[in-house]
Amino acid sequence: MRSLTAMRDTRLALWLRVREFAVPPSMIESATARRAAGDWAGACAAARVDVDLNLRTVAHAHGRELAARVRADLKNLAPDLLRWHMPRIAPDGLLRPGLTISLARYQGAGTVHLVARTAPAWADAGQRISLALWDGSGSGDVPYLHPHPHPDRRFRLDLHRQLWDARRSGDLAHRAGAGRWRRTGQRAATDRWPTPGRVSEADQPVRDPLPVGDGCAVHRWGPEAALLLHAEGRSSGVVVVRLDSRHRFAVDVGASPAATRITAVPSRDRARASLLLPDAATWVLPDLELLDHGLIDADGLHPLVAAALAPDRPPPTSRTADDMSGTRFVDCRGEQHRIGLVDGVLTALDHSAVEIRREELLTALGGPALPCLRAVDETHRHPECLVDVRARLDHGDAAGALAAVEGLLGPDVLLRSGALRDELAAAAQGRITHGLFRAGLAGLGRGPASRDPSSLLTRNTVRTRPRHASRP
Known about the structure:
- This protein is α+β, with helices and mostly antiparallel strands.
- The protein contains 19 helices and 13 strands.
- It has three domains: about 5-170, no CATH class; about 170-295 and about 305-310, no CATH class; about 330-460, no CATH class.
- It has helices at about 5-20, 25-35, 40-45, 55-60, 65-75, 80-85, 170-175, 180-185, 220-230, 280, 285-290, 305-310, 355-365, 370-380, 385-395, 400-410, 420-440, 450, 455-460, and strands spanning about 50, 90, 95, 100-105, 110-120, 130-135, 195-200, 235-240, 250-255, 260-265, 330, 335-340, 345-350.
- It has a four-stranded mixed beta sheet with strand order 1-6-5-4.
- Helix 4 runs antiparallel to helix 5 (about 65-75), helix 15 packs antiparallel against helix 16 (about 400-410) and helix 17 packs across helix 19.
């Protein structure tokens, strides 16, 4: 069995990768500017969020009052902040696929949810999110068939508006218990699961048996369980906390905070619980852990998150982009030669055009390649930034990936066959597959989405996992 320390380190590595690639600064700047101008639809487009609802249709179906409430939430929705906090999966930190998350609940003639959806794994290229309304009658206004159209009990954000609503982002530090966790987080991590204990009014364990170093937000389980019960119209009751398939705990919220108790749930009693603590309240906010371990600074956080968690930080310094188009040196025939960009193309600078054409002809006839030309060819096929390019493509940042390639090879480069071109082609094919899914032309029954070898090739190429031969 893996130790909790290893699990914690893996979790931090995953979220560090997410913070580096999943929500690029250009997306945050564009979405923030459009949201500040009142263009909520433009902000969603900048954050790669598809809007699958029409406010006129909502007003006709559910009334103008509910449509006005939905419009107010959409105007204050920070789609880049929502993407920042969306649930992720290992090992690449991609969006959890096939998920429907409730962002807000509206009570009227019936319960209507504003939901955010992610595509299934086979169609998640581009890492796009969609917004829709769900009223329990089906998939709502979604024009395509989603595998799980109903809101998930475990992954819900309707009680955690600070994770997507710009008006409530200032509550992030309080809801995450930043002050309490930082004081306890400096102690040595206890490599054990929570032992049954009682939580006091001060939001602190009485006997200090609960873990503080494995990512469990035990210091917030009691208050968050009380909020969940209050949302359901109850003042006391039992809320189940699911850590994984083997470890579950029951938070028994009493009439007073001092009466709240945490007990382990035996495996034989793991029936489907009526109330499940949301995943956002189960674990410590990843940004808190990254800051506490010194893996990221405030400048690397989303501006709304940084303003809540590090309000006293110095003004952010302007960060210049890495210069990937600088001259590189190659040992060629006993000398140091240069390769760099000339007229938008990577070229051997210390060889004339006539000499380059002659060497290319000799190489085509089977002769040894000139070291400078070998370096240029290797850069085309397997560039040093291939890992970063692949990560950007995995997270849907095609513009950032192309910018990295152009900075290295030039804007007018003609890519040669190799790993780099395969990655770009696989990403393009994946976006086509996602478009087919959105149009309802793939993913139904035994369609091409689940059987087409090119779809499997796309998934296995973009990932770093070993390929598996598809069945005919």
